[in-house]
Amino acid sequence: MSSTHASPLSSPGGPLPENTRLVIIKTEWNAAVVDALENGCRRVLADNHLQLVETIVVPGAVEIPFAIKAYWDAQRDHSARPHAFIAFGCVVRGDTPHFEYVCQAVTQGISNLNLQLPVPVIFGVLTVNTNEQAQERIGGTHGHKGEEAAVTALKMISLQLQFNQL
What we know:
This protein is of the alpha/beta class. It has helices at residues 31-47, 64-74, 98-116, 131-136, 145-164, and strands at residues 21-27, 52-58, 84-92, 121-128, 138-140, 143-144.
C-alpha cells in the first residue's frame, strides 16, 4: 500500500489458485489518472503473484458496465472467465449536471452487476470535484485507490472461494 496512507486493506486475504483471472475495465477519459490507478493495481496484483490480468479500454465511465457484462457473456469457456473485474475511471465535476448523471449511471451499473454476475465487480471509479482531488487519490494524501481496488478484489476472490467450500 502507499507509504503515505495506512489502509485497512493492507492484507490481501488467503492464497489464490494459480489460474486466478482478473479483468480491468478502464476508461480513456482522464487517462493519466486512470493509468495511474491501473499501475497501482497491477503492482499489488504482481506482488501477490497474480499473472492472468487483462485490460479492456472503453471510452467513458458510462460504458464500463456494458463492457463488463459483454466480456462475461462472450467467455463461453468457463475456465476463461475472470474471478473478478475491477472498474477504473475518473469523473471530474464540471459546470453542468452531466457529472451527476455519469456518476449515477456507472455506480448503478456496477451495483447491478454485483448482483447479476457470480463474480465481484470492484468499483474503482474516482468521482471528484477537481483534478487535485484525483491526484490525492493516486498516491497522495488519500492513499492509492488503484492499490486499494486490487486488495479488495483479492479479498473478494478469497471470500468467494471460501463460500464455494461450504
